[in-house]
Write a structure and sequence with these properties.
The chain is α/β, with parallel strands linked by helices and about 500 residues long. The protein contains 16 helices and 13 strands. It has helices at about 1-15, 40, 55-60, 80-95, 105, 120-135, 150, 160-175, 190-195, 210-240, 260-280, 285-300, 310-315, 380-390, 415-430, 475-490; strands at about 30-35, 95-100, 135-145, 185-190, 240-245, 250-255, 325, 330-335, 355-360, 395-400, 435-445, 460-465, 475. The structure holds 1-deoxynojirimycin.
């Protein structure tokens, strides 16, 4: 089987590198373009009315040193107050949809579904109807890392009851807005909810490798519970679609010797959160499951640290999707760690668990100013092909892709080049490889609070002046570029690499 996987890697890579197809510059007419944000990163108004505290509010109020510039999302882009300006910017870009998230404790102040905040309900209601009035479809993420602190105090995602808490919350949101929203994402980047959060890297800032693995199971069950609620109670009436937005890097072996560790690393980081949903068999990826069982035993645990699914749970999670949601930014090489080797920053998200070292190639170096964001556009095409190879000809929606810089320049040539080169590869995947990619979401509409990088990392197509209490927004060159692409549904939009 291992040899089969290795040969598979080589064949796919060789086939793709033949690059036989002439790049067609146009996207299919039904292809959808959108832009994205998330609530903690833009909303501010962290304690407005009866809003409860979420885990980021709590972490950054108690441990501000978590963020490079000791900033937080208390005010951020102030989109709580300035949402209409945001909607006008989106409308001006001419995109098809806006992906945003609901701040769980803004709607349910204590996390539980017994009390719905009138203010939260009004805020998201206005946002959704404001989008629709402008002809923009809302794409709503239920969880972009805003767990109510009250639920974290009860164990958060490591508590099996988190499945119920999330299901109750999802039902409230669907009941309020399913008549106006057609596309839903349950969880944003399960890997980041479960790994760096239990390695003291992001909120809630815990250290517990077992917690990371418990979380993996319960977050998948929570996703599936929400999916099934929609499927049974709302889909017959409204016919919308629900999925999860998983993050994946393109992983490739550093050398031909590193094929096995690459497959394991891929299982550990990504397939862990996709195989249970998209594979025909369901359950944990078999290689990872066997590895974790063995490793847990060798560490003296009475059972695997990666908790088993029951047969009923396997069935519940399997098939809980209407499309594959993919967040993608960058690529990594993988190799086995040498005895006693330190795990660098790239490998901090739990790769010590499997003994893998992640690195980059010199030719992928970028001007992003963020070590993690190396640029390798072919990675997205490879990945799209691999998803099709692994799970069949399913619909794939790119739920995030984007580029950061540190200077925040309005003439953001690096971002335009990134979008152009990645979109070219998406087109090759669609037109050349016949992968069923149905949409592309650019991250992000605005410069915003970039988690532990604070306001120093700029992903936005619009600059925000964070020193001005009115938080004025200014379009960058990339906003004009993306508008042209979205309107023409083509990359043939002339030269945007100079300010114009
Ligand atoms: C993915 C996350 O979903 C988003 O919140 C973040 O800002 C971008 N990556 C860029 O790091």
């Amino acid at each position: 089987m291992k040899l089969g996987i290795a040969v598979g890697y080589l064949i796919v890579d060789r086939l793709l590198s033949l690059a036989g197809q002439i790049a067609c510059q146009s996207f299919p007419p039904e292809f959808r373009f959108g832009v994205a944000t998330s609530s903690y990163q833009i909303e501010g108004a962290w304690n407005k009315k009866i809003k409860g505290e979420n885990i980021w509010d709590h972490l950054l109020h108690t441990r501000p040193e978590f963020v490079a510039d000791r900033s937080n999302g208390d005010v951020a882009c102030d989109s709580y107050h300035l949402w209409e300006q945001d909607l006008d910017l989106i409308a001006e870009m001419g995109v098809d949809f806006y992906r945003f998230s609901i701040n769980w404790p803004r709607l349910l102040p204590n996390g539980f579904a017994n009390k719905i905040s009138a203010d939260g309900r009004r805020y998201y209601g206005d946002l959704i109807s404001g989008l629709r009035a402008r002809g923009i479809a809302p794409v709503v993420t239920l969880y972009h890392w805003e767990l109510p602190q009250s639920l974290q105090d009860l164990g958060g995602w490591a508590n099996p009851l988190s499945v119920e808490w999330f299901a109750d919350y999802a039902r409230v949101v669907f009941s309020l807005y399913a008549d106006q929203v057609d596309t839903w994402l349950t969880i944003n980047e399960a890997i980041y909810v479960c790994e760096p959060s239990y390695r003291d890297i992001v909120a809630p800032g815990l250290v517990n490798e077992v917690g990371a693995l418990l979380c993996s199971k319960y977050i998948l069950l929570a996703h599936a519970a929400a999916y099934r609620i929609y499927e049974e109670e709302f889909k017959p009436k409204y016919g919308g679609e629900v999925s999860i937005a998983n993050h994946e890097f393109w992983f490739e072996p550093k050398t031909d010797e590193d094929l096995d560790i690459t497959v394991l690393a891929r299982d550990y980081a990504f397939t862990r959160f996709s195989y249970p949903i998209y594979s025909a068999e369901g359950g944990w990826p078999p290689l990872l499951e066997a590895f974790m069982e063995e490793k847990s035993k060798s560490e003296g645990y009475p059972r695997s640290k990666l908790p088993a699914f029951t047969p009923e749970e396997i069935e519940l999670v399997k098939g809980s999707y209407d499309f594959f949601g993919l967040n993608h930014y960058s690529s990594r090489t993988v190799r086995a760690a040498l005895p006693g080797e330190e795990y660098g920053a790239f490998s901090a998200d739990g790769f010590d668990e499997i003994g893998a070292i992640l690195e980059s190639r010199p030719e992928w170096a970028s001007e992003s100013g963020q070590d993690w964001l190396t640029v390798h556009p072919e990675g997205i095409r490879n990945l799209l092909n691999r998803i099709k190879q692994q799970y069949g000809d399913i619909k794939i929606m790119i739920t995030e892709n984007g580029f950061t810089d540190l200077d925040g320049d309005l003439n953001d040539i690096g971002r335009i080049e990134y979008f152009e080169s990645y979109l070219e590869q998406v087109l090759l995947a669609i037109n050349g490889d016949k992968v069923n990619v149905v949409g592309y979401t650019a991250w992000s509409l605005l410069d915003n609070f970039e988690w532990t990088s604070g306001y120093q990392s700029h992903f936005g197509m619009h600059a925000v002046d964070f020193s001005d209490p009115r938080r004025p927004r200014t379009p960058k060159a990339s906003a004009r570029y993306f508008k042209s692409v979205a309107r023409a549904r083509s990359l043939d939009v002339g030269n945007f690499t100079a300010a114009n």
